[in-house]
């Protein structure tokens, strides 16, 4: 996902938030991963917003995408320059109303934003894991999130919400822990990557691994593979937008010049934008985390993992009511993929709503201000909350 | 002869939907095809405690429905009904849509498979005013219910009450209930037509089920 972090236009915000940490799986009780490796201790960075009600029935678990973090909304300090990544959706009176719901947003394992990942210290060596970090899957990420919820004493989640790779975790939650999940909202997501999505991820990974500074993942005390990571991010940004979005945003406009330079400077605005996004990314993200998380997304296959190859069987265990949302111009996780999961949910008699939102902004559309998207999510959450209260 | 009635007084604006709502047993499972902004589903949820799902093609309407707290799927009714298991729904409602369906035979067959009962309503093409127009002007008829020209009408199927009864006989299904009404479909009040309905009703509403054998 791209970064569109902006202040709320009406100035409404949940206010100050704090990043917290939970550590579990201390050896010898370390976590057994899907790839049969063991990981421990495991730390999860997380943030909570709003207030947990007395019967603990108002929990909304928000799961972030590739480059996101636990900072979903609000500010860390009074003079913080930017709010969390979904400030437009999460806050008082917003689509996910923090006056009503208790929001938990954990950082995924494998990431570099506070949870255990390849840049964390390996207790065995006293140095960052680097490429010794075991490959984690979406299932592993969700198992770690479950440990956090157990620790917080949460037994029931009103709704699990997430877009893109966050949406994969939503689906995994609904299928892996069906008795905990009342409702689920996968946005711009898929039950499995297409060859196209894997291909773009592989190009991005190769860009990192071909950077001589990558040094097989051992770069933490030397120069980082910034060129590779920036290039990987540039590829990502192309896939997050759309033909229409790029035409509108850049067209063929030139960057601060009236004619071609006849060299290889960034002549076009789109070139300049991608270079800027690439460079900005290296300051805040770890190249190894990028490799691990994209691999986890490529491996994710709900059919293979939970349905012996069948999408319908994969949802056989699920009990949640679903709101599936896709966007017309998303060519990374196109609507047909959302429709396939909707079909499988219907075959299992699950309560499901589906909407393909008309949006020009490609895969990133779920992160952009959209009053209709907020209204949809709000209505769906309120319905599920009210129905839960009646039970 | 004509009863001026408002059958389900609270909330539902359209008379035909009031008739349909009065046929639905509380607590049933409903599929509303072409549910629009979800007025009927919302009403049935509030007043009859039904578990309802709607299917609607237009994104803006789907959004309104979901924002209201209804379960609605965006998609084409002909395709969307195929994904359900047999007898998933107690009632499937096809209101004011049959006349716009390309393959009504195929659709009704799938509906009778995934639903135990199907409620179908459509404008009656044998209303006397339509008959007179064809007879006197020799041109494709237009009226309040069918206001379009032949070249831009979405109502591609010409159906009369008689046609539909014959269809049910030919296809081995049973008409469980039948009401002919006289109303513009946006009117709150309507008449149930019992005298010469084939001539005088603007709409027909049928409750059909599978016959004993085909």
Structural description of this entry:
The complex is a heterodimer of chains A (391) and B (214). Chain A is of the alpha/beta class and 391 residues long. Chain A has a domain at 20-193 and 301-390: Rossmann fold (3-Layer(aba) Sandwich). Chain A is built from eleven helices and 14 strands. In chain A, the strands form four sheets. Chain A has an eight-stranded mixed β-sheet, sandwiched between helices. Chain A has a two-stranded antiparallel ribbon with strand order 2-3. A two-stranded parallel sheet of chain A has the order 6-7. The longest helix of chain A is centred in the C-terminal third of the chain and has 20 residues, at 371-390. Chain B is of the alpha/beta class and 214 residues long. Chain B has one domain: Vaccinia Virus protein VP39 (Rossmann fold), CATH 3.40.50. In chain B, strand 7 (173-182) and strand 8 (190-192) form a beta hairpin. Chain B is globular, with a radius of gyration of 17 Å. Chain B starts with a strand and ends with a strand. Chains A and B meet through helix 10, strand 14 and helix 11 of A and helix 3 and strand 4 of B.
Largest sheet of chain B: 9 strands, mixed
- Poorly predicted runs of chain B are none
How much helicity do the residues of chain B have? 25-40%
Q: What do we call the CATH homologous superfamily of the domain at 20-193 and 301-390 in chain A?
A: Alpha/Beta hydrolase fold, catalytic domain
Number of helical segments with 4 or more residues of chain B: 8
Total number of helices of chain A: 11
Overall pLDDT score of chain A: 95
> SSE order of chain B, as H and E?
EHEHEHEHEHEHHEEHE
Overall morphology of chain A: globular
CATH class of the domain at 20-193 and 301-390 in chain A: Alpha Beta
Sequence of strands across the biggest β-sheet of chain B: 1-8-7-9-6-5-2-3-4
- CATH first level of chain B: which class? Alpha Beta
Q: Name the assembly state.
A: heterodimer
Strand percentage of chain A: 15-25%
Main pleated-sheet profile of chain A: 8 strands, mixed
Mean pLDDT of chain B: 89
Enumerate the strands of the largest sheet of chain A in spatial order, edge to edge or round the barrel.
1-4-8-5-11-12-13-14
CATH superfamily heading of chain B:
Vaccinia Virus protein VP39
Number of strands of chain A: 14
